[in-house]
Amino acid sequence: MCCDLKRRFLLLYATQKGQAKAIADEIWQQAGAHGLEADMHCISEMDKYNLETEKDPVVIVISTTGTGDPPDTARKFVKKIQGTTLPPDHFAHLQYGLLGLGDSEYTFFCNGGKTVDRRLQELGAQHFYNTGLADDSVGLELVVDPWIDGLWLALEEAFLLQKEKEGMSSDAVSSSLCAAPHVGHELNLSSEVQNLKLEDERVRSSDVLTQKLVDIHLVASTRDTEPSLIHSVPPVSQTALNIPALPPEYIEVQFQDTHGENPHLSSLISEGTTFEVPVAKAVQLTREDAIKTALLLELDIAGTVFDYQPGDAFCVICPNNVNEVEELLHILGLSEKREYFVCVKVKQGTKKKGAAHPQHIPERSTLKFILTWCLEIRAIPKKAFLRALVECTSDAGEKRRLQELCSRQGASDYTRFIRDSNVCLLDLLQAFPSCKPSLNLLIEHLPKLQARSYSVSSSNLYQPGKLCFVFNIVEFPACPTRPVSRKGVCTGWLAELVAPLLHPNKNTLDTKGGSSPNPKIPIFARPNNTFHLPADPSVPFMMVGPGTGISPFIGFLQHRQKLREEHTDWEFGETWLFFGCRHQDRDYLFKQLRCFLENGTLTHLKVCFSRDSSTAEVAPPKYVQDVIRLYAKEVARVLLKERGYFYICGDKKHMADGVSDAVVDILSMEMEADKLEAMKILAMLREAKRYLQDVWS
């Protein structure tokens, strides 16, 4: 840069799982190459910045968590700016650009960022750069990369405007800035990412400031005409590459002795009290020939203070697969050091801004403990991780391919062969055998191993001291990018753990001849503030839960049955349940639903089976959204006339969206209104917490 003094901007991030911070780190790194100083802070560190007096441009990177909430680190900030006494010109001096992260598989896409953006606007703040909304369901980088590319020119113009406001002539400002052609920087950053293009090559050429230009031409053999994880084809294989800047190392690892104890699992959790509870019972709900295997586990919580309501969720603290940990140790050449204690420290003199000891890594624990309980070794590697792995790879061809996968030119290959294929670190190390990363690199780039959340499928009133939940065993079949099949991290572990309970005649005796004790699992509460039964029992409600989505509704019905038994003088509203599965005889998870129907707890039970053949003249509906349409008048009556509740649990993309569409059509038809008006009514029902979803992607 030709400027002597670096111009400053404030860079704030609000992260839940580390994504927003990683993107902020990338912006911070690139800022220096553009002659700018990024003053970076977590948005929770409100003692280190002051938006009320901030004169420089502000860049905010913020994620979304839960059902559209800002991340935990942003809660105090959001509460502060939402103060009702703040005047409409409170932030009139503020110039900002915001990048929101979210997942369009969920209802409130990027709502954390949208909430902050909307409130800053209400308080008079001005955009110096268009808001970007990145969608994790198709790849954050499809919006993030071009948003960062356009940021630098937007900042230049913001600084220019800032100087003009301070009374400097535009000529004087121009002479103090590096000569750069003026180009438009407005980007269409909607979630329709297929329309996202960077058409101005002058913006594109600025990448050279921050990205190393790789010019290695490897000609593909004529027989390899299709790209794969390890192989590329023209034009990617024959082009110069723009790859990200190498992330600075900031972790130092020291191996110590083998004496001592690992920390308790509860020390890894900051969300609440951890309970280690025994599995009292395990039942396979599906037949052996069902496409998916569903298990019901009953936990004994009688000896704890763990409490819950029907509709709540809870989290299971699970380990990585023991065989995968051993395989990773072997590839890293650290098998003999698995039981050695490791001391993790921040590297002295690191160039990483705000480098800190990762909170999810204990100060002292064994190598095996870190890889088993702390790091998400199944995580899909980010491009920054691939860039770091390039430096650990000795084979020229493998090095080039990793460069391609993290480059701008190889974006579609990254999406296809890494992101969409659910490739993990082990897959990469097997595909690129000359890649030998250090342990500190894994600690720097692998995220925290997250506890897995499950819906409660019972009522403490109906079954005191018991907590039940239902899950499908997740399967990842072998494919070209993954040579072996794998089960889900948590569901695979749980299935293996309870196998003796499912098959009591196999290996149930311990070495002393007695029966094995019931296995225990660590859990902690994750209360749901909204997905509960109506406070007024006389209010009617409808439940839609195909497959394992029925789980919370079993708890609803158990609770309702017990209330009916204990309060015979109460008035209870009608209850509807729409359930669906593939085959009636293979995966109808709770055939005892008929009992709820017979004793009056459940008023209406409507079921459908999508893969069963029918000989009827008129084919029965296949999916729950089709069944709901058959009861349009009843749906409209419950929602509109009787102010009832509507609950949905299950798959977001293939079910919940279809149900929402059906409800919109029903409202439109029954109200004789256009679709837009019906959508507004549905939005109002959501806002009133009478249309509630507990969904997953």
TrEMBL record:
Residue span(s) of domain FAD-binding FR-type: 272-534
Cofactor: FAD; FMN
One Gene Ontology CC term in the entry: cytosol
Record EC number: 1.16.1.8
Catalytic activity: 2 cob(II)alamin + A + 2 H2O + 2 H(+) = 2 aquacob(III)alamin + AH2
GO BP term, example: homocysteine metabolic process
Compartments where found: Cytoplasm
Domain Flavodoxin-like: 9-152
This protein's UniProt keywords: Amino-acid biosynthesis, Cytoplasm, FAD, Flavoprotein, FMN, Methionine biosynthesis, NADP, Oxidoreductase, Phosphoprotein, S-adenosyl-L-methionine
UniProt xrefs under InterPro entries: CysJ-like_FAD-binding (IPR003097), FAD-bd_FR_type (IPR017927), Flavdoxin-like (IPR001094), Flavodoxin/NO_synth (IPR008254), Flavoprot_Pyr_Nucl_cyt_Rdtase (IPR001709), Flavoprotein-like_sf (IPR029039), FNR_nucleotide-bd (IPR039261), NADPH_Cyt_P450_Rdtase_alpha (IPR023173)
One function term, GO molecular function aspect: [methionine synthase] reductase (NADPH) activity
Quaternary state and interactors: Forms a multiprotein complex with MMACHC, MMADHC and MTR.
Protein name, entry field: Methionine synthase reductase
Organism: Fregetta grallaria (White-bellied storm-petrel)
